[in-house]
Design a protein that fits this description.
This protein is mainly alpha-helical. The chain has two domains: about 35-140, Cytochrome Bc1 Complex, Chain D, domain 2 (Orthogonal Bundle); about 160-240, no CATH class. The chain is about 40% helix and about 0% strand. The chain contains eleven helices and no strands. Helix 3 packs across helix 6 (about 125-135). The longest helix is centred in the first third of the chain and has 20 residues, at about 1-20. Bound molecules: heme C (HEC) (2 copies). The site of one heme C has 18 residues, from helix 9.
Length: about 250
């Protein structure tokens, strides 16, 4: 497992290195030199096809089904675009995401997984990739994205809000998977599977830095300026803190 992880990590680095190194070349049309795409693609989808084959195919696979050659070594598995099911959505469960949701996942990358950030590509290139990803599922032709869920601004952290949150955590049974203390060890944790029946682990909330960061502020103490003065008053505690990991997983 050790070697495979290292291989994946290196190939991710390589992909990102390539992404930054040839960013200029993309705008002049990276599609040339790659397998001839299907005839029915729009010019934008065709450019996306070339980019996809260059940057995404190793994980998401030629058919977009998430079975790229790196997939066996990756956990969580690369997304299967033929299902058009996405995790990071602003839209309700069961509905298609907004374009901006998918674009934002490409920009950010998905923390805690092997999905890198594709910020080194241009905005146009990410739009081209989006257009191409949509060709993998007929749902994009027959369905519209769901109406986005309105998320109110994050409330202040007060004792009352914390108590109300704790009550919801209980009432909505978050603890069944995430555990009473949020350590990802609730009674259902061991039996969970994803939509493709593969085992999936609930988040351990005590490791706040691992969030995929969908509208969530990082709980990583180094990234939260408000926590800094308090830390300075407790030097021993600060020394015990682990530095945040430099890469995913
Ligand atoms: C090194 C492997 C790897 C490469 C290369 C890669 N991805 Fe991913 N991608 C993943 C993994 C793994 C996931 C699922 C992560 C998860 O479930 O937390 C994912 C998920 C996604 C998602 C789904 C986000 C969601 O909300 O469900 C999109 C969109 C995506 N990738 C686009 C791309 C595009 C576009 C490229 C090429 C520019 C690309 N990926 C290249 C590994 C990769
Ligand atoms: C049936 C099991 C289950 C229940 C119940 C559940 N979760 Fe989760 N939760 C998960 C799993 C599994 C993941 C990890 C998903 C992944 O890796 O993509 C997760 C991930 C999360 C994340 C991390 C999202 C991110 O940004 O990466 C948050 C936050 C979260 N859950 C909050 C909650 C809250 C709040 C509740 C109760 C309202 C809840 N969960 C109930 C299984 C559950």
């Amino acid at each position: 497992m050790q070697t495979s992880h290292r291989t994946i990590f290196l190939s991710t680095i390589l992909a990102m290195f390539l992404a930054s190194g040839v960013a200029a070349a993309q705008n002049s049309g990276v599609a040339s030199g790659y397998p001839v795409p299907k005839d029915d693609l729009t010019p934008q989808q065709r450019t996306g096809d070339g980019l996809y084959k260059r940057y995404c195919i190793g994980c998401h696979g030629l058919k977009g089904d998430g079975n790229g050659e790196n997939a066996p070594y990756i956990d969580p598995k690369p997304r299967d675009f033929t299902l058009a099911q996405f995790k990071c959505r602003s839209t309700p469960t069961g509905t298609l995401p907004l374009d901006s949701d998918i674009i934002s996942s490409m920009e950010r990358g998905l923390r805690g997984s092997n999905m890198p950030s594709w910020l080194p590509l241009s905005d146009n290139n990410r739009q081209d990739l989006l257009a191409y990803i949509k060709t993998f599922s007929p749902r994009w032709k027959t369905e519209k994205p769901g109406a986005p869920i309105a998320i109110p601004p994050e409330p202040e952290v007060t004792a009352d809000h914390l108590r109300a949150g704790q009550a919801l955590f209980q009432k909505l049974e978050c603890w069944k998977c995430h555990g009473v203390e949020g350590r990802g060890d609730g009674p259902s944790a061991a039996t969970l599977t994803d939509s493709k029946d593969r085992p999936i682990v609930p988040y351990d909330f005590t490791e706040g830095h691992k969030f995929k960061q969908i509208g969530l502020k990082p709980i990583n103490p180094e990234a939260a300026p408000a926590a800094a003065p308090q830390q300075q008053q407790q030097p021993e505690q600060q020394q015990q803190q682990q530095p945040p990991p430099q890469h995913t997983r």
